[in-house]
Design brief:
The protein is an alpha/beta fold and about 300 residues long. It has a single domain, classed as Ribonucleoside hydrolase-like (Inosine-uridine Nucleoside N-ribohydrolase, Chain A). Strand 2, helix 2 and strand 3 form a beta-alpha-beta unit. The chain is globular. The protein binds beta-D-ribofuranose and calcium ion. Beta-D-ribofuranose binds next to helix 1 and helix 7.
Length: about 300
């Protein structure tokens, strides 16, 4: 049976790849997508999400989530993802509309309607998930699990200590990691093992479908932006979460307790991972990825998309 998931995205180049994978793989039943502010302001991440869904023919409801972090001033990732948040591809004029209810409400209602069946897949700042947990305290015990992109047991990418999604809303991340919900953390430890090099980019581009052309155009921009920031090849951060849901055996996980630094000015947003002797942590952290099998999964997703 396909895994029922709700994605929470700040689309974004790698978010786009995650949507492509989720829409294209038969192992996944995509119940809805909520857009949150992060890589760009909400208006742009929402519009990018709608455009991607429309172009790849994903008939999935899209919702607007929170337009700012819980406490901190808004931080966007325009240096990596460009002015639109998804620079590179040219999209046709947008027809698809966002649904008329708030994304946080959609998350709560869907989880309550399908207790223990829904996997939440947040791949941006955790603002919506934290809000949903505060509005509906039963949420953390009623989700199947949360598979999130964020954090790092080593270095950060937004600061030397903190990864972008956690740094953008550390208080929200604290609420989620301390909720008791079962969590799989796909942090930089594992996502930096799945890098799109030029031969891979050409391999996907050569499909010449609409979806693969959008992928190629956006990855060309993303590659240049990452190079300008000192990384040779862009990492497929967010799609690691979808790959894990579809095919968990692609990843090796280790059990940890995660705490988020909220006080220290230098290190705030850092995710501290303590190794519990009794393995009582509620978070499983990705430490190793099988990159060749990840690309096979993406190939399979493109096979079923226009
Ligand atoms: C995360 O930050 C964003 O820029 C990406 O979309 C990803 O979710 C990586 O640190
Ligand atoms: Ca993201």
């Amino acid at each position: 049976m396909a895994e029922k998931i709700i994605m929470d995205v700040d689309t974004g180049h790698d978010d786009m790849v995650a949507i492509v994978m989720a829409a294209g793989l038969q192992e996944i039943e995509l119940m809805g997508i909520v857009a949150v502010s992060g890589n760009q302001v909400l208006e742009k991440t929402l519009s990018n999400t709608l455009k991607v869904c429309e172009l790849i023919g994903a008939d999935v409801p899209v919702f607007a989530g929170m337009d700012r972090p819980l406490l901190r001033p808004q931080l966007i990732g325009g240096d990596i993802h460009g002015e639109t948040g998804l620079d590179g591809p040219v999209f046709p004029p947008l027809c698809k509309n966002a649904e008329p209810i708030h994304g946080v409400r959609f998350i709560i209602d869907t989880v309550l309607a399908h207790p223990h069946e829904i996997t939440l897949v947040p791949v941006g700042p955790l603002t919506d998930i934290a809000m949903a947990m505060r509005l509906e305290p039963r949420l953390s015990s009623l989700v199947k699990k949360i598979v999130l992109m964020g954090g790092s047991m080593g270095k950060g990418n937004r600061t030397p200590y903190a990864e972008f999604n956690i740094f953008a809303d550390p208080e929200a991340a604290h609420i989620v990691f301390s909720s008791g919900a079962p969590i799989v953390m796909m942090g930089l430890d594992v996502t930096l093992q799945v890098l799109l090099d030029d031969p891979l980019l050409q391999r996907f581009r050569s499909r010449r479908t609409k979806s693969a052309t959008m992928f190629g155009d956006s990855m060309t921009f993303y590659t240049k932006a990452c190079k300008a920031h000192g990384s040779e090849h862009p990492a497929m951060h967010d799609p690691c979460c979808i790959a894990y849901v579809a095919e968990p055996s692609l990843f090796t996980l280790e059990r940890r307790d995660i705490t988020v630094e909220l006080q220290d000015k230098l290190t705030y947003g850092k995710t501290y991972a303590s190794k519990s002797e009794d393995a009582i942590g509620n978070t499983w952290v990705g430490v190793k990825a099988d990159a060749p099998r990840f690309w096979e999964l993406l190939d399979r997703a493109f096979d079923s998309l226009p």
